[in-house]
Write a structure and sequence with these properties.
The protein has about 375 residues and is mainly beta. It has four domains: about 30 residues; about 90 residues, Immunoglobulin-like (Sandwich); about 90 residues, Immunoglobulins (Immunoglobulin-like, Sandwich), CATH 2.60.40.10; about 140 residues, Jelly Rolls, CATH 2.60.120. It contains two helices and 25 strands. The strands form five sheets. Strands 17, 18, 19, 20, 21, 22, 23, 24 and 25 form a nine-stranded antiparallel sheet that branches. It starts with a helix and ends with a strand.
Length: about 375
C-alpha cells in the first residue's frame, strides 16, 4: 500500500511539471522558431527625442555581444535606416532627418552576424515643423522701465502649455557689441544692466515642444519700441503755478505729474484771480533722452477733475532749458477717460529738458494726474 501511495504521488508531480512546462512553452511560443533559432538582444532602455523635421533615437547596447547592427523602421516598415553597432558601443544613437511634420511609430530591430533579428521595440513620437512654428506666441511685455544704468522688463503670461520655456533679449551693450541674454520662463522680471544708452532692444520667446527635444523653436524677434523712463531722479525746473493746500502741502504740486501715480495730481492755482491757460511745467530729466511717446492720465481725486484736464497740449524739448523745440503738433486730450491716453512723438531727438504745455481747457485752472514718458 505504501508503495502504491508513493507511486501515485510521483505521477501527480510529473503531471504538474509537464503541465507547467507546456504553459511556459505557450507563453514564449511567439519568440521561438522551430530548429532552435535564438533572438539577439533587443534595444534596451530606448529614448526618442523630437525635433524640427527630425528625431534622435538612442538605446543601450545591452549585454548581447552578438549584435552587429540595427534597423529602424517607420511608415509601416516602408522606410528604414540601418545602424552599425560596434563591439565597444555602449549607447547607440541615430538621428533621422527630413521627416515631414506629423506623428510616427518607429520600430527598432537588432541583428546578429547571421542576420537573425530581435524582438521589435516600438517608439511613438511627434515630429514638429512649420505648422508648429507658425502657432508660436511671443511672451508679452507688461512694463519696460529704463533707469539711468539699466532696463527692467516685467513679463506677462507665457504660453507654457505650448512649450514656451525662455525669453531672449537682443541688444547692443556699452562696448557696441550685440548680445543676447536668455531668461527662463519662471522669471517675471528681467534686468539688462549693460545696454548702450540711447538704444533699444528686441525680444523673442524660445520653445521646446516636448521635454525630450533636440531642437529649440523661436518666435521672430519683436522690437521693443516703448520703454518708460524711471522718473525717480527727475526734477521740476519750472512751472506756471499750483494750487496751495495748507492741510496737505504736496496735494497739488507739479511733482505729482511725474511721480508714476495717476491717483495724485498737479492742480494749477484756482484762487481768484485764476491764472488762465497756458499752464506749463518744465522737467529736468537729468541727462539727454530721446522721447518717442508719452502717456497722459487725468486727475481722479475729485469729481470736478473730470472736466478740469487740458483739452489741448503741446510737448517741447530743450538742451539748455531755455530754448525749446516743439515735438510735433498740438494734441488733444479727453479728461473724461480714466485710462491712459497714448501719444507718439514724430521726429524725436535727444534733449535734457521736456516741457508740457496745456493750451486750452473747460475751466481756467487745470488738473492733470500723471505723465509717463517713453524713449531711449
Amino acid at each position: 500500500m505504501k508503495k502504491l501511495f508513493y507511486y501515485m504521488a510521483f505521477v501527480c508531480i510529473a503531471v504538474t511539471v509537464m503541465t507547467a512546462c507546456k504553459e511556459m512553452d505557450t507563453t514564449y511560443k511567439e519568440y521561438l522558431v522551430v530548429g532552435g533559432i535564438t533572438y539577439p538582444g533587443r534595444a534596451s532602455s530606448p529614448e526618442i527625442y523630437t525635433g524640427r523635421n527630425r528625431v534622435k533615437i538612442t538605446w543601450s547596447r545591452g549585454t548581447d555581444q552578438s549584435v552587429t547592427k540595427a534597423r529602424i523602421y517607420w511608415n509601416n516598415y516602408s522606410d528604414s535606416v540601418e545602424v552599425a553597432i560596434h563591439p565597444d558601443d555602449k549607447i547607440i544613437s541615430k538621428t533621422i532627418e527630413n521627416l515631414p511634420e506629423g506623428t510616427y511609430t518607429f520600430v527598432i530591430k537588432t541583428f546578429d552576424a547571421a542576420n537573425n533579428s530581435s524582438v521589435p521595440v516600438e517608439l511613438l513620437s511627434a515630429v514638429y515643423g512649420d505648422t508648429y512654428q507658425e502657432g508660436l506666441l511671443f511672451r508679452p511685455i507688461k512694463t519696460s522701465v529704463r533707469f539711468t544704468d539699466k532696463i527692467e522688463v516685467e513679463w506677462g503670461a507665457a504660453n507654457i502649455s505650448g512649450g514656451a520655456y525662455a525669453t531672449e533679449i537682443k541688444y547692443i551693450d556699452e562696448s557696441d557689441q550685440e548680445r543676447i541674454k536668455r531668461f527662463l520662463i519662471d522669471e517675471e522680471l528681467s534686468v539688462i544692466s549693460d545696454i548702450k544708452p540711447g538704444t533699444s532692444y528686441e525680444y523673442r520667446t524660445a520653445y521646446l515642444p516636448q521635454e525630450l527635444s533636440i531642437d529649440t523653436f523661436y518666435t521672430d524677434f519683436q522690437p521693443n519700441q516703448y520703454s518708460s523712463f524711471h522718473t525717480g531722479d527727475w526734477k521740476i525746473k519750472e512751472y506756471s503755478s499750483f494750487h496751495p493746500d495748507a492741510a496737505n502741502p504736496t496735494r497739488n504740486v507739479p511733482e505729482n505729474f511725474i511721480d508714476g501715480d495717476p491717483t495724485t495730481r498737479w492742480h494749477t492755482n484756482a484762487s481768484a484771480p485764476v491764472p488762465g491757460y497756458p499752464h506749463f511745467v518744465v522737467i529736468d530729466m537729468q541727462s539727454a533722452k530721446t522721447i518717442t511717446a508719452i502717456e497722459l492720465f487725468r486727475s481722479r481725486i475729485t469729481s470736478n477733475d473730470r472736466n478740469n484736464g487740458s483739452k489741448t497740449f503741446q510737448l517741447s524739448i530743450s538742451n539748455d532749458g531755455v530754448n525749446f523745440t516743439p515735438l510735433g503738433e498740438v494734441m488733444n486730450f479727453d479728461s473724461s477717460i480714466d485710462d491712459g491716453q497714448f501719444y507718439e512723438v514724430s521726429a524725436p531727438f535727444a534733449a535734457r529738458y521736456l516741457e508740457f504745455r496745456g493750451l486750452s481747457g473747460a475751466a481756467a485752472s487745470m488738473s492733470m494726474g500723471d505723465m509717463s514718458v517713453f524713449g531711449n
